[in-house]
Predict the 3D structure of the following.
Amino acid sequence: MSDPTDYDEGYDDLLDAIDDSEGYYLSCPSGHGSLPPRRVCPVCGDPQLRETPIPDVGRVVTYTVVHVPTPQFDGAAPYVTAIAEFGDVRLTGLVAADPDAVSVGADVSVGVETFDSERRIVFETL
Amino acid sequence: MQTPRVAGVGLTRFGVHPERTGRDLFAEAALAAIDDAGVDRSSIEALHYGNFMGEFAENQGHQGPLMAEAVGLSDRPATRHESACASSGVALREAVRAIRCGEADVVLVGGAERMNNLGTAGATEALAIAADDLFEVRAGVTFPGAYALMARAYFDAYGGRREDLAHIAVKNHDHALENEYAQFQRAISVETALEAPMIAEPLGIYDSCPITDGASALVLVSDDYAVRNDVDASVAVTGSAQGGDTLALQDRREIARTPATERAADAAYGDAGIEADDVDFAEVHDCFTIAEVLAIEALGFYEVGEGIAAARRGETDRNGERPINLSGGLKAKGHPVGATGTSQVVEVTRLLRGDHPNSDSVSDATTGVAHNAGGTVASVTVHVLEHTRRGEVGE
Ligand SMILES: [Zn+2]
């Protein structure tokens, strides 16, 4: 992780923070949420971005059960990937749950887990 | 302003050709287009070429000159355009602009993709890079997975079932039956589609386009050039526009809509001076069945939430009021990604000229649309094609 060729500044800093239960997103004065690294708001271009805590509980907006994976996830399929809304920002993550336990509207928390030597955003159903 | 006209079209048979190089595929399609155009090859001033995964499939970047060389035009300016599955739609747009502004009179445009030599896992990996690597691919999003996320969101917001999607696959397979360039020339049933294995729920194998090798090409000429050289080019590109959106689905306000297509359609219809109701038929980007639903809504043919039932009701089949994907679409014709955008325009042109096996279904048609999307419609082009006499447009 300290190897700079394998570190994505902004993104990996965010994963460190989520791992420490101090996850944040970037919020512009107009209330648009986005994820780092950003220099300006992707919606309105405002450069005044403030780190704002990601709420503890998110809501599943949509999900899929992937049966045909990329080689990185070989052996893991079928697995669940979801988009969850945490206040003004949405995250995409793997869901650490049986597919039958996931539904649109379900509450989840966000964490980080290492899989196939890559850190990944992971949701847990609540 | 000059109006670009389609002087000639060419396709390879779409299908499984893992042993054929990209340069050979493109040469076949492009030489066929030049032959169909009946223009002197030396009059071609530039090549605009679409390709997405050449670095994965053939360890080959910088494909513009390579492809120009493959058709005997090695001293012409040649540019590769990469916008995922919209690569050749974007290439076409550049060719249209070059002719409109008077910079060129004859332009070759097309695309090619070699995919099957990568195998299913390799092609899945190559396609996935159209998504946001940090925030989507690392979280397990595949290309089918992304459209599955859109399908689930659509069902949740507007209703619909897997059976509705199956009717789209059945229709597009039916449309491809007589299309000699199509990867699948065989009928399927709703039951077959529903019982097939899942790729990314709620999408199964028959909701997905196949992995395809192939190429497509067009020769575009200016209206003036067509008149001066007595070129038979009865189909004109009268509208052209491109739309954009966030790369990652998570950053869109509505996951079950494709506003980039809405914006591109508005602009292209305005450019052509038409309304959505004037469109007689369309080739739309149905990489997955749900994508056809999103496209026909965003193109203004259906209200949001209504497109899901169109195929089931028979409104978009060859006998329907506005046929969609008479070629068989990406679903049955196949989807060699970098070749798809211009292949749609080849099909629309043949349908309007009357030399397509399904031309009889649209014998009175004058206006067709081609809709080509990249990723989850973060890039999209919409082109309006009209059957007109030379000199009739742009005066
Ligand atoms: Zn903003």
Notes: Residues 4-125 of chain A form one domain. Chain A has a mean pLDDT of 95. The interface with chain B takes residues 8, 11, 34-35, 42, 61-74, 76, 78-79, 81, 83, 90-94, 99, 104, 118-121 of chain A (CB under 8 Å). The CA atoms of residues 49 and 66 of chain A lie 35 Å apart.
